[in-house]
Fold this sequence. Notes:
Layout: H1 7-12, E1 15-21, H2 28-38, H3 48-59, H4 64-68, H5 71-76, H6 81-97, E2 100-107, H7 119-139, E3 145-153, H8 159-168, E4 174-180, H9 192-200, E5 206-209, H10 215-224, E6 229-232, E7 240-242, E8 248-250, H11 252-259, E9 264-266, H12 268-273, H13 285-290, E10 295-297, H14 309-320, H15 324-336, H16 342-361
Helix pairs in contact: 6-7, 8-9, 15-16
Amino acid sequence: MTTPLTLESIRKAPKALLHDHLDGGLRPGTVLDLAAETGYDELPATDVEALATWFKTQAHSGSLVRYLEPFAHTVAVMQTPEALHRVARECAEDLAADSVVYAEVRFAPELHIDGGLSLDAVVDAVLAGFADGEASAAADGRPIVVRCLVTAMRHAARSREIAELAVRFRDRGVVGFDIAGAEAGYPPTRHLDAFEYMRGNNARFTIHAGEAFGLPSIHEAIAFCGADRLGHGVRIVDDVHRAPDGSVELGRLASLLRDKRIPLEMCPSSNVQTGAAPSIEGHPFDLLARLRFRVTVNTDNRLMSDTTMSHEMLHLVNAFGYGWSDLQRFTINAMKSAFIPFDQRLSIIDDVIKPRYAVLVG
Length: 362
């Protein structure tokens, strides 16, 4: 018998996560603890529930720029090796508790050096935290593989340096590179030297594009920068057109994305909060899924959006009537698109994802 689709049953389903920001997923209690330990006294609330509510309320702004403002508080308390290690360990544990079996978690090392740490020391602390979180989750019977993407801020000028950091650590847990931050006025082509460095070293990268800005940012990310994946990519729907007879026609850019199987790292709740989509029901996820784009489900920022992978999947189930086969397809889409080697991806798909979904389907 097929297991009914509920939040609790979805929590048991194996998940693959490609787009999750470390500094956007702290536990509210951890933010308070770290603020007390480091002497940071600018938090907007002093108890767990009020702080959690503040983050969610502030993030639901309708603007990517305003959505990013609360990160000043989480980044401020992540300036020591101990803080970075704790946040990374808890991240792995929290994802594993939600039955995430593979995750790529990203963060911007350049934001965590205000306390005097070097970029390498920042990455070392985070990778150690992920490793300890993996071990803790495995001991609890919830094995998870966590890998890291290092991000450069698109308004800054350190992207080549961060790309070099990604390559330097690629055999120690860093599997790729990314640029993030406000899109308007900061096109991906400002960072061509970083992307050329990654390609020259046979390394993988994703680019935030098509979230707050439209088709030009997606075009640049693919045509000029050579992105392997797109962070969000929501605005590709602007190149999907309905003909007078009701049929759907793809523009050249949308066709290229679909033909090349460029993965879209979509984050439904976050996309609504930033105004990239009007609502979950109005999100282009379903249209793109039906047109067989390689869509994936992601959390983006679990603290800011007060979400988990299970909640994101449930939102889509409620909005579009998806069943277990759909959730399995989205999960396999993500796993196929991961930046780890092919044999490791295949092993997780064949040995973990498919067998556990078979139990749920009955």
